[in-house]
Amino acid sequence: MREEIYQIRRPEHILFGDPLCLEDKERFQNVMVDYRPEKYFDVRLVLKEEPDPEDARFILKSMDLYFAPSQDLKIYMNNRMYQGQQSESKGIAVDTARYHIEVDGRKLDIHTGADGWWGNFTEFYRMDGNRKISDAAILNIYVPEERSFMWMKQNARYLFGELRNIENTRRKLTERGAR
Questions:
Q1: 123-159-43-138 Cα dihedral, nearest 10 degrees
Q2: Cβ(33)–Cβ(139) under 8 Å?
Q3: Which of 4, 91, 105, 173 has the fewest CB atoms within 10 Å around its CB?
Q4: What is the mean pLDDT of residues 36-48?
Q5: CB neighbours of 66 closer than 8 A, spacing ≥ 6?
Q6: CA distance 29 to 31
Q7: Per-residue pLDDT tens over the stretch 58-98
């Protein structure tokens, strides 16, 4: 397993999904991300590669973004939430064997080599009467296996600007080792 955690500047706007879905955002809003983080959120980026728990011959890679007030980030990064919170999740579908990521106007197209689910978006919130108050969000972007960890880091730097390293974890992945 290899994991690197970075503090990054909060983006103003993120688009993520199949390029065809992004052409008709209203129609495909359930399978793509068009997100504007709350101004009071801090952001952590986690670059990760780990063996697939269902088949260790494969390595899973992801770029995960955590949005929350700074004092709450660790809660969401540890897959937890507060009592009384609700959450909504949606998978990010790809039908053209590629996805598009746009962060504050910086664009990147990734060829996945296959259709399917290439990400997930979860928003955590609470209700105040009829008003929905956003507490946090998590965006998971799955990266094709043939892409290297260095490729993820370089493209994260392109999309998000300066990466301030907070923590690194590295353990032997498998017999094949890390790429």
A1: 20
A2: yes
A3: 105
A4: 97
A5: 43, 44, 45, 46, 73, 76, 77, 136, 137, 138
A6: 6
A7: 999 999 999 999 999 999 999 999 999 999 999 998 999 99
